[in-house]
Amino acid sequence: MDTNFKIGTIFGIPIGLHISWFLIFGLLTWSLAGGYFPQAYPQLPALMHLLLAVITSGLFFGSVLAHELGHSIVALREKIPVRGITLFIFGGIAQIGREPPSPGAEFRIAIAGPLVSLALAGLFGVLWLFDRAIPYLAAPSEYLMRINFILAAFNMVPGFPLDGGRVLRAIVWKLSGNFQRANQVAAVSGQLVAFGFIGWGVFTILRGQFFDGLWLAFIGWFLQNAAASAYAQTHLQSALQGMRVASVMNPQCNRVSGLLPLSQLVEEHILTSGQRCFIVVDNDITSGVITLKDITAVPQNKWRFTTTRQAMVPFDRVTYVTPQTEVLTALRMMDDANVAQLPVVENGELIGILSRDQIIHMLRLRAELGI
Known about the structure:
By secondary structure, the chain is of the alpha+beta class. The chain has twelve helices and ten strands. It has helices at residues 20-40, 46-77, 103-131, 135-155, 163-176, 179-206, 210-240, 262-273, 292-296, 308-311, 327-337, 356-368, and strands at 5-10, 13-17, 82-88, 91-96, 255-257, 277-282, 285-291, 313-314, 341-346, 349-355. The strands form three sheets. A four-stranded mixed β-sheet has the order 1-2-3-4. It has a four-stranded mixed β-sheet with strand order 5-6-7-8. Helix 8 links the parallel strand 5 and strand 6.
């Protein structure tokens, strides 16, 4: 889930908004102002209904953010990197850098979010007990008490990618000792839950509640895609099990001069060959590595005046693998570094490049050969 708008960091974790967040924020505000608050608190003026709806929507997404921070903080305590948190149309998602190392870590990370939501439900419930005689305060606190409880309960449904599916995966992993088996069980459970939501949505539409049914079906569609992705990931891990970088890497590393302008690199090398990664050399000495990511970080109108040496990542700062590194480990390293390729180094010498494209190509070849 790509972030479209960055709004800051909390505990070093980047927080962002996906463009779909604005749609759901507007719909939630409209629903509260035009339906829920007028029915629950008719004594309040219409303008106050709107103001409370905006405030309550903001606090609701603050609650979703707290839920995701619960996952993220526990992940950091387990020494697992967190790339960021994105709020989007279905709530929020914490982008954990890699899979947990143990069933216990998986369980603690998964359960943290629902526990935060339950704690918030309790907090807003206590506030409501004290302020229920004051409609201006009771309206948001009552709603937030209910919605946080619903958020916790919904996320504990035992189907991946919901938190309950991750808890299920942790339990199966602990009992079987096999992560891939646990991932497969959680993914299948997630698909069953997803089809259940789609069926419930269709049934709701047939009963005449079109928008409610459409929303349920949409949630089911999202869950089904995520669960299918997890299922495919299990097969990918099985296919790559035991495979080493040496059998996949490209030993031919295109080298370019450190004085080459980026505009010339793009026109004469990238657009003609499709190569995405180059070794930068000065006087036959490797200086660094430059990729499409490094090039696009420079404004295009400055490409003519920027050399590869200025845009490259120095060799001593490059994340690299060895020929004996497992491909699965290399893929995780690419994810952590947010890159599409890694240099292959042996005895201090650069001997090749490993890219995602090469891994995909190898998997296709193995599939065609029936391996």
